[in-house]
Amino acid sequence: MRIQFQEKTPEPVDRDRALAHAQLTVRRDWAANIHGFKGWHQAELDPQPLVLHDLNGAELFYEFTLRRGNSAVGSVKASASRTLGSPVIAVETAPRRWDPDAAARKAREKAQKQFPKAEIKDTSLVVYGYPKIGVRVDLKTDDDLQSVIYDVSSMVQITRFGPDQPEGLAAWSFYETIALPHADKKIRRWDLANRELDEVGRVAQNAFATAFTDREADTLRASLALQSQFAFIEFYSSRVLKYGPRCTPHDCFMLYAQQTDVYCAVATGQMILDFHRWPYTQDQIATAMNTGASGTDPDDQATGVESLTNNSMNATVDYTADWTEAKAEIDANRPLKSGIPGHARACAGWKRQNIFLISQPPRRWLQIYDPWPWNADICQGGGVVWEDWDAVTHTNFMYVRHA
Amino acid sequence: MIDADAARASAAREIESGPQNDDEHFSAWRGASVGEPQLVHDELGQPAYWLVPIENQGTGVGAVRILGSGRAAAMIAYRAGSNVLELNHARVLEVAASVIADEQLGEVLLVHDGPPGREAWRVEVLAGGKLQRWIFVTPGGIYQRSPGDERLATNQ
To answer: Domain A236-402 belongs to what architecture?
Structure first.
C-alpha cells in the first residue's frame, strides 16, 4: 500500500484556540444538564492534545483528554482546521478505550514483522474512516517510501480505500469527502462560532478556568446555559402508523418475513399492500414485480404495486432518500419502502431526539419492519428494528399513495 | 473497532435509554440484559460490526447492532424464527452437512450477506481444498451461492 501524502493543514486552527472551544463546549453541555456531563465542572482538559491526522496526512483533530483528578473521564475532538465548520466535532463521555503509546508500539512490531526489509521512518495517528482511528506506519525500503495503517484496537491492517466501500474497515479522507467540498460555507460557520467564543470570554471570563468548585459552578451555570423559549420540551418526538387515526387509534402494521432469500422486496410489498387492504401472496406479488433469481429491480417493485392495485395506488421510487421525507409519509399515515444496498424493508415510524449535545446533530431513527431473516412461514422470521438514520446507507424509498 | 466489552456496554445503554423503550414490539426488553456480543463479518471476512444479543430470563428477545465506532445502529426485536444467534457452530455445521455430498465443510463465519442486518452463518464448501460455494444457514433454512456472485448488488 502506498499513501505517502503529507498535505498541509488547510485553514489551520491554533491549538490554544481549539482548547478554548473544547472548554466552552464541555462547560455548556454541563450547564445544560446534558445526560452524562454531571460533575464535569470539576473536570480539567489536558492542554496537550493527541494530534489525529487525516488520511491525506494533514492535521485533522486535536483530541483533548478530560481528567478528574488522576482519572481520564472523557475526551473532546476539536477541529484542527476551519474547513471542518464546527470547532468541536465530538465529545466522548467515557475514557478512551485504547492506549496511543501501546497502539503505536504494536503497530511498529506488526509492520516490522510484515515488512522485515523495511526501515520504519515514523508513526502517526490517523482517522482512516471517521470515527475510526489507526496507526499509520511509514516505511522505507531502499528509495521506496510507503505506509501501512493498522486499526488502533484490533490491529487489523486497513486494505480497502474509498468512501464508496461497504461498511467495515475501509479508509477515506475526511477532508476530501466531507470538509473541502463545502469549505467556504464551513469556514463561515467556524468563524461565527469563533466570534461567539470571543463574546463568551468577554462576559464570563472564568468560563475558561481549568476547573471549578461546586460553589463557583453554581454562579457560572446561568451564564452558560442556552435558554429555550419553550417551558417544556419532550426528550423525543415520534410517530408510528395508526389504524383509524381518530378516536381510539392503535398501532397498525404487520411484519411478514420474506419467504425466500431473495423475496425482501416482495415481502415489503406485501406488508405495504396489506396495510392498504390489498391482500396477495408473496408468489403473486413476485410475479407482478418480475422478481428473478437475483431479486427485484426497484422500478419493477413500483410497477408491480400499481398493477396489483388496478392502478388505484401510485408507487413512486425516490433515489434521494431523506429522513424528512420518510417522516412526512408516516405523518400522512402511509408506510413506505426503505431501500438499502441490496435489501428492501418497510418503514412504519420515526423518532427524533429533541435535546442533544450542542456540538452534535440530533439522533434520528426509523422504525423498520425488516423481512430478514427469511422464513417459509411469513409469521416467523423477520424483525422490528429501530434504526439510526445516520448509521446506515440509504439507496431509495418507494412511496405508495392513493392515485 | 471497539472491543466486545465496549459493545456490551453500548448495548446495555440502549436497553436503558434507546428509542425502542415505548414500543410494544419491544415489551420483552423490559428487565432484559445483554448477552455475549458476536462479531459479524463482511463478505471479505473482515470484522464489520457487533451483534449483541438481548436476553430476558434466558431467552433471546432481540439484539443491538453496534458499529465499530460504538454507535448503536439498530435495535432489533425478535420473534420466533428470527434469532440467528440461537444457532451454534455445531448446529450450523450439522445443517450444512445435510446438503453436501462428496465435499468438505470449511470455515463457519457469522456474516452480513448483503447490507448490514442480513445476518447469516456462512459455511465454506470445499472440494480438493478449494472453495466451491457458500452455504448460508439462517433460522428459517439455508440457501447457497458461489463466491463473487454479486446478484444482490442492484436488485432487492
So the answer is: Alpha-Beta Complex (3.90)
